[in-house]
Amino acid sequence: MIVAVGVDVIAIARVQALLVRTGERFLQRVFTAAERDYCVRRGRPAESLAARFAAKEAVMKCLATGFGGGIGFRDIEVVRELSGAVSVRLHAGAAAVAAARGIRHLHLSLSHSEHQAVAFVIAEA
């Protein structure tokens, strides 16, 4: 049963500007090591980082809590499967909130154009 949906759109230029301005500090604060490793290997890292940032925001909308209150950006991890599909892995506070809300699975879709990245998440009980 679907219990929540979340969507987020972000300008890739915004993420690129954060990379230029704060560099590694931004990467370490927002992304897990695996997410950073994957994205920085890409030809245009800002696109992949923006999509993952949007995914984190979309998941937070499903959890209905917002960031803070024991949930951090790195508690939500976008994982790339061997097939190339993406999925969400929750850690720490985000996993606890999902369990409390009865969320057992999150379905994720990512996309981007030249200028924007979008993430759509369906939370299932």
N-to-C SSE series? EHHHHEEHEE
- Poorly predicted spans: none
Distance between the termini: 5 Å
Q: What is the C-level CATH assignment? A: Alpha Beta
Extended strand count? 5
Mean pLDDT, as a whole number?
A: 94
Q: What would you call the quaternary organization? A: single chain
Rg for CA atoms: 14 Å
**Most strands sheet:** 3 strands, antiparallel
Q: Give the DSSP E fraction (strand runs of 2 or more residues).
A: 25-35%
CATH superfamily: 4'-phosphopantetheinyl transferase domain
How many domain modules?
Answer: 1
CATH topology description: Ribosomal Protein L22, Chain A
The order of strands across the largest sheet is 1-5-4
Number of helices: 5
Helical percent range?
A: 40-55%
Shape: globular
Explain the overall architecture:
The chain has 125 residues and is of the alpha+beta class. It has a single domain, classed as 4'-phosphopantetheinyl transferase domain (Ribosomal Protein L22, Chain A, Alpha-Beta Complex). 43% of the residues lie in helices and 30% in strands. The strands form two sheets. It has a three-stranded antiparallel beta sheet. The protein has a two-stranded antiparallel sheet with strand order 2-3. Strand 2 and strand 3 form a beta hairpin. Helix 1 packs across helix 4 and helix 3 packs antiparallel against helix 4. The relative contact order is 0.25. The model has no long low-confidence stretch (mean pLDDT 94).
